Amino acid sequence: MKITRETLINGSMLALQRRHADKHPDMHWRTESEMAEGLEQVLGQHGENEDLWVFGYGSLIWNPAFDYAESRCALLRGWHRRFCLKLYAGRGTLETPGLMLALDRGGACRGVAFRIAAANVRQELGLLWQREMFGGSYNARWVSLESAGNWRGEKFRALTFVINHTHPRYMAELSVEQTAALIATGCGELGSCREYLENTVAHLLELGVRDTNLSRIAAALPKP
To answer: Exactly one of 37, 70, 132, 206 is catalytic; which is it?
Structure first.
């Protein structure tokens, strides 16, 4: 299974998530009504005829799986990228749990901002909602971004997905060594955590971004 626009549209990605819903006490899922209510709340905070920006800091950078009109490198202040979400599905299992990136409080983070055309906002955000919000581990949040490159210094509003600190799979404190150990062995139906880390590091470097923390974790991984 791969996360693609097609697997999000046909529901197979959501079905995969649901199959794991009762396998571990820490796997808390949002109901369909909670999902719909949250999406409508966010859409209600956005102009109906306005384009919408989404900030990606992990796999969205290299696999957005939604249609967008423009992308650009951007800086988010007040939040940093961190492996702080434990996985028992996707890129982990009950036997080989993994770790996923999320935005946690403090510092700053460079990533990619994607602009969704106004006419497509409901549909494309709905696909993102299935991908990011079903597990209950992320909260949607409006943030202010600063553009880089040709748009350097321009500020604009965007939606992103930050860690839910009340979720039981949130890992408040992990050393580089503990993080690397989980990433080295974490693997599931969507692939390995090592692949996820290496893809993120490689695509950030293509943007001219070197994330020191991710580089330290990658250096601590045992040789495959």
So the answer is: 132
